[in-house]
UniProtKB/TrEMBL annotation:
PANTHER family: ATP/GTP PHOSPHATASE (PTHR43581), EXCINUCLEASE ATPASE SUBUNIT (PTHR43581:SF2)
Naturally occurring in which organism (per UniProt): Sphingobium cyanobacteriorum
Signal peptide range in chain numbering: none
SMART domains, A to Z: AAA
A Pfam family recorded for this sequence: AAA_21
SUPFAM superfamilies: P-loop containing nucleoside triphosphate hydrolases
InterPro entries: AAA+_ATPase, AAA_GajA/Old/RecF-like, ATPase_AAA_core, Bact_Antivir_Def_Nuclease, P-loop_NTPase
Gene3D superfamilies: P-loop containing nucleotide triphosphate hydrolases
Record-annotated AAA+ ATPase domain positions: 21-337
Protein name stated in the entry: AAA family ATPase
Coiled coil: none
Amino acid sequence: MIAGIQIENFTAFGNLDIPFSPRINVIIGSNGTGKTHLLKAIYALAIASQPASAVEGSEKDANPQLTNKLLRVFSPGESRIGALRARGAPGRARLCLQGSDDTRVALSFSANSKGVQLEGGARSEVQSRPVFIPTKEVLSLVRAMQDATHDRATVEMIFDDTYLDLAALLANPGFEDEAATLSEDPRLSNIVRELVALVGGRYRWANEGGFQFEPGEYEERADPDRSRSKTAQMYQDSTVLRFKSKGGEPLSSSMTAEGYRKIGVLHRLLCNGSINPGSTGILLWDEPEANLNPALMKEVVQVLLELSRNGQQIILATHDYVLLKWFDLLIDRGKEDHIRFHALCRNVGNDRITVETSENYSLISKTAISDTFAELFDEDLARALA
């Protein structure tokens, strides 16, 4: 779990110190206040905390890898690390990610630095590998991103590493026999079944490459063998889940709604183990509401709450009132739900970003999100009374 992040003189940020909930964190703020930059900073640092991200040897050996990762995640116009330092800042840029067990990973650099500098003794394993879901849909782009015949340099000019890393995760094989995995973990079976019900089918990797949409639903079937197993006795369940296709030719993912594809991304990540609550790293999701039918937002919030109840730490960024309100309405303290809101705003005096953190939904009443919807309501009421 990630306990918090400290940021100094990085991009638009002056000094931020944000404590995170082990359950769900919601980043809110107007456009241009750095919501995506904050998620990317967390992602890059969480990647840096991975043992596999370091070259065997001294910490100095790992610096070029971490420098390149920051550049690939943020893609500044100037391909140098100093371009990510806040302009006019008096000191070095510094990022520090703290784990819930007091471990941390911290790095810094100056305007003239050629690479990042890991703080001595600061690098340690904070958590398992994170997952970043960017604003734009990725499912239909995986084939092009992963195609070995495509020029890699050109692909990297188009997409930053949040897209390319997610494409690599989506391309990992999922289970072909859903019953074999879902029956062993009822937590995931319920969530996966709900995601498939939302879009009326599932996205599967086709043999010729790319994802295809297969209409259908999950159904429970009796399994005599499993009824005698210890797992079944533990959960008092003698059934397994099978996907039942509705028949017909599957559709190319690009021929389905973009909002459905975003649901498909979450489904795929759960099915191939990239997201496994309690085992894998933090889930970072930038604007889950983008291109999503508002009618689906309640179910998406319910899925996110269920994931968090099973041990998945989540940080998402949004400026959608409907999504925020469903979190407020669906939170269940009896199930130990916990949501922490972090409101980013730009300081008029020095143009730096500040943050206000609260566990009370009323914090949203101070933001432009609530003001805009209040204005819309007032205008509608005035017209009705005219």
